[in-house]
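User: What would this chain look like folded?
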Amino acid sequence: MCKKKLLLLAFLVFFGISSYAEAVPVDEWLYTAQDIITLSQKQSFDSGDIYTLKQDIDMSGYTLQHTIGYSGAFLGKFYGHGHSIKNLTIVSINDSIGFFSKNNGTISNLILENAKIVGHDYVGGMIAVNQGHIDSCKFVGGDVTGNDYVGGLVGYNSDGTVKLSSSSGEVAGYDVVGGLVGRAYAPGHVIQVQTSSSSCSVTGHNCVGGLIGFYVGSDIVNCYYRFN
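Assistant: Here's the prediction, encoded as structure tokens.
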């Protein structure tokens, strides 16, 4: 009997159908601050992963030690459903700092309210580096501080898309600083940013813009900046 079990196990492992052979996409509902912290500590993502924010979450009293996608880019889908993550604080001396460090997936209908985001280069209120899709997201009344490539919503948008999104609050950096996006890069004149806006107070030294600090080869459509 033992010999038969060993042969069966060897067969399963050899042909790659062991239950441990491949990662299974997750479908998680997020309810609490601890759920957000746990997600930020995840080291890898699958393109089939789905995360759904089920209610507003207050992050007061917590400081994230990691950002989502800090080890490997976020590849799945994050559905905010119009809910807010409030009072988020991330303070770091590293590059690629935002609620999401690097996004290659889809983030939609998420609101970050009264967040404080501090990093070195590639700093965004919601996403540091975006190569995926952002749809109907808002960064509301927060502070974003960095050095180069700093944006209220996205620090560096590289071949990604941003639509129906907005930012408000304060953004400060040195080089390539934008109220919505620090730098937008898309060779081939691809529509990267559309129907979006910023009302951020923006300060910097070089390549500073109310909406976008600097863009190359990307089309910006139906967007505006308004600061009162």
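Residues 25-225 form a domain with the Pectate Lyase C-like fold (CATH 2.160.20.110). If you want, I can go into more detail on any region.
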